[in-house]
Amino acid sequence: MKARALFFALCLAAAAGPAFGQQKYLKKFQRTYYDRAETHRIGLGFLIKIGRGLIPARLIGDEDVTTIKRLLKKVSKLKVYTITPDENETIAAEDITNLRQTLIDRSHLEPLLEVRDQGSHVYLLNKGKDDELGNVVMLVKDDEDMVMVHFHTRLKMDDIQDLINRSMAKSDTSSLQTM
Predict the structure, then answer these.
(1) What is the pLDDT of residue 31?
(2) What is the torsion angle, in degrees rounded to the nearest 10, for the CA atoms of residue 13, residue 18, residue 19 and residue 24?
(3) Which of 2, 36, 60, 144 is the most exposed place for a label (fewest CB within 10 A)?
(4) Which segments of the chain are extended strands (E)?
């Protein structure tokens, strides 16, 4: 009986390993800058749970609040890592490229989005089943700072497309009202 329980515990630990792999690489990257930058790591998953429970009922009639509350129900385990280098230091582009490649190769994340604009870079990687986002890692590098966001979600691509369509419709409506 003990052997069977030990076997199941080992199987569960092995199955959970890939889910925590991204977190391991993000922590390791952050630790490389401990002595050269101001670094912070904060888990915000509990705030999402509290926030979605505390949204007042009087606001539920508002379409935006309803959409946000519906999307927040599908997000859990949010961690934010920040790195602000000291005055004469920078975060090397090669380090970010290596981190991104490590996440792709070892954690089996897939590149979902890459945006470059005026010295800022945003990389969005995910590992999910079918059209579900699953584990999402977002790397945001600005001129000086870097923010890494890691979260688990049950969001589907349809949810993201619906959010984009709503925001586009809202911006079209607001531009019509100003004319």
Answers:
(1) 83
(2) 100
(3) 2
(4) 37-43, 75-85, 110-117, 120-127, 132-141, 146-156
* Contact by Cβ (8 Å): 18, 108: yes
Q: Name the maximum alpha-carbon separation found in the chain.
A: 75
Pairwise CA distance, residues 45 & 31, whole Å: 22
Rounded Cα–Cα distance for residues 95 and 92 (Å): 5
Gap between the Cα atoms of 132 and 41, Å rounded:
26
Per-residue pLDDT, 54: 73
Residue partners of 128: CB distance under 8 A and separation at least 6: 134, 135
Tokens of 40: 């912070």
Residue 120 tokens, joined: 């800022």
DSSP letter for each residue of 14-45: HHHHHHHHHHHHHHHHHHTTTTTEEEEEEE-H
Strand order in the sheet with 120-127: 37-43, 75-85, 146-156, 132-141, 120-127, 110-117
Which stretches within 32-78 are classed as H helix?
45-54, 63-72
The two counts, helices (H) then strands (E), for the chain are 5, 6
Write phi, then psi, for 77 (nearest 5 degrees).
Answer: 45, 75
Q: What pLDDT score was predicted for residue 66?
A: 74
Secondary structure class of 33 (helix, strand, coil)? coil
As given in the structure block, the two tokens for residue 71 are 């999307």
